[in-house]
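Researcher: Next entry in the queue.
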Amino acid sequence: MSNYEKFQHHGSRTMERIQPNTAPKKPKSKKCRISVRSPRVSIGFMVFLGVAYLVWNLHQDVILFDEMESLKQKHPFQAESSCQSVLDGIPFASNTLRQALIYLNNDTSKLEQDIIIAMESARLEYVIHYGPILEQPYLNVNSKKGRYAFIIFEDIYTYLNMKKDFQPWFDKYLVQFNVGLILFHPPPDDIIEEISFQDMPGLPLKIVSGLSVKDYHLNSFSSMLHIMRPAGVFSGDIPSKKRWTLFDAYNETVFQPVSYAYISENTLDGNFNLTLAFSKIKKNIFNFVGSLLFGQVGSEWFSTPFVSVIQDPGELDGVRRIIFGADLEFWVHKILFLDAITYGSYCKMHVPLERYVQYDVEDVFMGLPGKRLLVEDVNALVRFQKVMRHIIPNFKFHLGFSGQYLFRGSVEENAGDKLLLDRREEFSWFPHMWSHEKVHSFENSSDLCKLMERNKQFAQV
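Model: Structure for this entry, 461 residues:
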């Protein structure tokens, strides 16, 4: 039985912070005591700890590799290759307006701002509703057309605590028009005193909240991934101002993991450790010494990957759900949020994979002597373009020019101007004003057009 399966079996176990009056009693043995009067014993014991920790750390790496291979075998879900494959065979796929409904608790939260920024940067339309759902939402345009392509809840409990009169009608709309849900679990207000799983009301999920996390990685078999691609492990502690919630998807026929994370030892505010004099290394030897003296004290919590973003492809009741255990502060979640929009809306609203990139280089002929382009600068631009063309076909820098300032630098800088003109066909160009005048300073359009025409004539010579 693997560590992951073993943890599933003991999912109700809790790990409490050790207090002086509740700590397990250590066997009274002078052999484990670091004696000040016996420096040889002290140094020998420290060497023993160091070697044992290195062996234990190597063993943990092997366990991590085995766990990841086991997880991949448990969740052999093939990622969709394109939006078209998602849309194939789905009725009502286009029978909604291309806009989202967003339920927010208030208009001041950081998550609310991040959601709106992501929607607007992707040029997706949305409607915001603040506060709880006090009346039946107006979701239909008519009997054959839905008003929203997907729905976002800033707080998952706003959805789970919906009035019972609204819930069946709400879920019927989601199933009829293939509308998915994106849900965020709110962080706890206080630092937790223990780690324990709790049942989520309304969904067959167990959750543990108030965590600091580390070693974040993606499930390469998740069908939700569209823009984001799994690429190794984001090692170390994940910086976050708020605590995370992780999921234990014990009902694996319903839920599929999108990403995993490990619980960080910092979860209990760094106070859950043995009383050791080595303050700088106490976090590193916590698990080893804990298992040595107390017998696997909470080691399963820190060595088992838990689910940080989870998806229900509709197995529960026909509704697609994507649940985030944290906000969008972590940059990977920002991209996963866009993928969740694509997946949850059945590609009715999606961020395409095509990107258009333009690099503008302003005022290539301007600048005081000593601050202008040289021959080596122009050659560097040409070389960089060739490298970029392996990624972006026909890539060119877009150069802005004001003709009056040509050959106004030193001898070396004028040579750079000449080389830029000689290789002009390798770039694309756009005109500024002849003398870089400010457009808003002109009192009439005729003077403006005269200087623009002069810059045009310079470009045609």
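Model: Residues 1-41, 60-65, 71-81, 270-297 have pLDDT under 50 and may be disordered.
Researcher: Noted, moving on.
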